[in-house]
Amino acid sequence: MTMDYLKAPTVALGTWAWGDSGETGDGYFGSRLTQAGLEEVAEKAHASGFTLWDTAMVYGMGRSETLLGEILKRYARSGYQLSTKFTPQAAGTGDDPVADMLEQSLARLGTDYIDLYWIHNPADVARWTPHLIPLLKSGKVKHVGVSNHNLSEIELANRILGEAGFRVEAIQNHYSLLYRSSEQAGILDYCRNQGIPFFAYMVLEQGALTGNYSPENPLPKGSSRAAAYNGMLPQLKALTDMLVSIGQKQDAAAPDVAIAWAIAKGTTPIIGVTKSDHVDSLVRAGSISLTGDDIAELEALADAADVNTRGWWEKEMQG
Ligand SMILES: NC(=O)c1ccc[n+]([C@@H]2O[C@H](COP(=O)([O-])OP(=O)(O)OC[C@H]3O[C@@H](n4cnc5c(N)ncnc54)[C@H](OP(=O)(O)O)[C@@H]3O)[C@@H](O)[C@H]2O)c1
Q1: Which residues does UniProt call coiled coil (predicted)?
Q2: How many other CB atoms are there within 10 angstroms of residue 68's CB atom?
């Protein structure tokens, strides 16, 4: 079988925070997003050539997918790519919970195929991975990837797909200056050697690494990200100051440099864009060049911050 493997873009767009839109939710990010504001984000992204959108059923329990589908329907389907996920913890009780969750995502997104479909986490690799095979064969899913898997779980998923002539075509893990476990566990090297794109999520640590938040101006009160990060903001100052200073030499801002770092490390960052200015940042990030010294200095300051930003849903990557 000849396979047309996934071609990864330089940067992808994340929409977890979009799940906070609507009456019920401003809980995770506390960002108070409106459809009109997000339409502007999408318009600028589209015009700037950023067309791969990452979402998941569980982002706002359908709200992120519904809003994304609503906003993207003005563009030709061939002009953008959709990435969404099967989340084992939200599986239904039918014969094929993966196919069922996919059908619901397709309906919310207003489409009949997903470009890149993920198993969201390694809850039971042997159980869930085989369910991807019929979805690939039917064409409802063009490419598949695994998220939050460690190296041995990735290899197991790859073996299962390999027996049917497919393979893991993308990895999606938490990877930022502050959280380099996938690099330390050899997953970045594995991806490079196998030619598998590595998508880095939470490169900006949900805003904590942008330099825009500080003890005087913390992340939105009552949100989950405030609970996770506000206590560590004082330790991040030296690092965000360095991001600012490296950026100044290239007409760029701190978040642009943090994103450029992830690109320089060979990954495709998935950036959770909530404002149209964030798209300008992605454009600038793509043209920043970081020296080996810049990278070493940033990583040393990140280590010196001595914080652990592992998400509550993540396991250690070693093992
Ligand atoms: N597979 C998984 O388990 C998993 C887990 C987490 C995330 N993800 C994916 O990865 C994406 C990214 O993660 P994330 O959204 O949690 O966090 P993130 O990208 O690290 O940070 C997003 C936040 O940073 C701010 N921001 C974004 N772009 C900016 C820019 N250019 N300049 C300044 N501030 C900027 C926004 O905050 P304000 O609104 O406050 O400005 C935004 O809500 C998610 O949306 C999701 O698609 C996947």
Answers
A1: none
A2: 26
The residue assigned the tokens 């060979």 is 266
Q: Is 257 helix (H, G, I), strand (E, B) or coil?
A: helix
- Please give the average per-residue pLDDT across 212-232, as a whole number: 94
Report residue 271 as tokens.
């950036």
pLDDT in tens, 71-110: 999 999 999 999 999 999 999 999 999 999 999 999 999 9
Selection from 191, 125, 203, 188 nearest residue 157 by Cα: 125
Instruction: Confirm or reject: Cβ of 14 under 6 Å from ligand 1.
Output: yes
**Does 226 sit in the ligand 1 pocket, CB within 6 Å?**
no
pLDDT digits (tens, 9 = 90+) for 37-75: 999 999 999 999 999 999 999 999 999 999 999 999 999
What confidence tier does 24 reach under pLDDT thresholds 50, 70, 90? Answer: very low
Give the residue, by CA position, lying nearest to ligand 1 atom 4.
201
DSSP conformational letter for 176: B
CA distance 227 to 229: 6
Q: Is the pTM of this model over 0.85?
A: yes
CA of 202 to the centre of ligand 1 (A): 6
Q: Whose CA is nearest to atom 5 of ligand 1?
A: 201
CA distance 290 to 171: 24
CA–centroid distance for 232 within its chain: 22
Q: How far is the CA of 62 from the centre of ligand 1 (A)?
A: 18
Given a contact cutoff of 8 angstroms between Cβ atoms, the answer to whether 55 and 15 are in contact is yes
Closest CA to 168 of 114, 127, 116: 116
Residue 310 has pLDDT above 50, yes or no: yes
Mean pLDDT of 214-224: 93
Q: With 50 as the cut, is the pLDDT of residue 1 above it? A: no
260 Cα to the center of ligand 1, angstroms? 15
| Rounded CA separation 7/58 (Å) | 26
Q: How many CA atoms lie within 13 A of 230 on its CB side?
A: 14
